[in-house]
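Fill in residues.
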């Protein structure tokens, strides 16, 4: 019908292959990338992707479509979520995500053995998944036993109101909505930064990021925020404001403008 089609790119090949060891290699990942490029998106005039980092990956892999960068957007339920007024009581770190290889929660387990203030920190792992038994064994070795369980969306929003930091360890992540929802709720993020960790695009300072897989660097960031409560409160407000700019309404408005631009060109 000669109508332009826009595709949405929200998954790296490694999101698929990380949990399948015999596919998680250069050939396996290249094959999926080629399938995306030659089959999935071949009839698309444009691709929508959540961050500039993802757009750069598409350019590097020779996707020829016009690229629009648009966040998935944060729900008003998180933007309007309340948050505790004081830092600590107790100081709480939240880590959200499926217990799987690409989410790399093991980095946080290692960091809690290295952090100076680990014994004064409450740690919450919100999720479930194939590595649950392994992570429970790692949890048993920590100085302070973490909470490890699945939470409903409403329960998770309540947990966010009582958390000081959201730690995001994933080595493969297109956007990281759970981390974004948490920082919009008032949790200050500490985000893994690597070639396929698009969530690190949302780090507002060097103390909001660490090199992916580097447990000592993560421990240092945790200790920094524990020791600087006033700066943490200031950063909470910065992230709440940032979260408002990434609302679903704003993303929808941008996406609609892109569709009109594509149709009218």
């Amino acid at each position: 019908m000669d109508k332009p089609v826009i595709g949405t790119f929200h998954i790296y090949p490694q999101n698929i292959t990380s949990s399948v060891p015999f596919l998680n290699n250069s050939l396996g990942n290249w094959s999926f990338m080629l399938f995306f490029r030659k089959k999935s998106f071949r009839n698309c005039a444009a691709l929508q992707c959540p961050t500039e980092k993802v757009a750069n990956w598409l350019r590097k892999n020779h996707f020829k479509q016009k690229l629009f960068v648009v966040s998935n957007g944060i729900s008003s339920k998180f933007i309007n979520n309340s948050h505790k007024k004081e830092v600590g009581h107790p100081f709480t770190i939240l880590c959200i995500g499926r217990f799987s290889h690409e989410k790399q929660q093991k980095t946080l387990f290692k960091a809690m053995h290295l952090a100076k203030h680990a014994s004064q920190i409450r740690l919450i792992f919100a999720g479930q998944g194939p590595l649950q038994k392994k992570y429970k064994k790692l949890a048993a070795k920590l100085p302070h036993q973490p909470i490890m369980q699945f939470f409903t969306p409403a329960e998770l929003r309540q947990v966010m109101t009582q958390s000081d930091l959201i730690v995001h360890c994933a080595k493969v992540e297109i956007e990281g909505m759970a981390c974004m929802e948490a920082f919009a709720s008032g949790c200050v993020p500490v985000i893994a930064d690597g070639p396929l960790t698009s969530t690190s695009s949302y780090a507002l300072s060097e103390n909001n990021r660490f090199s992916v897989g580097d447990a000592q660097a993560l421990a240092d960031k945790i200790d920094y925020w524990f020791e600087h409560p006033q700066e943490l409160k200031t950063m909470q407000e910065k992230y709440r404001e940032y979260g408002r700019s990434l609302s679903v309404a704003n993303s929808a408005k941008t996406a609609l403008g892109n569709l009109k631009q594509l149709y009218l060109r």
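DSSP finds eleven helices and nine strands in the chain.
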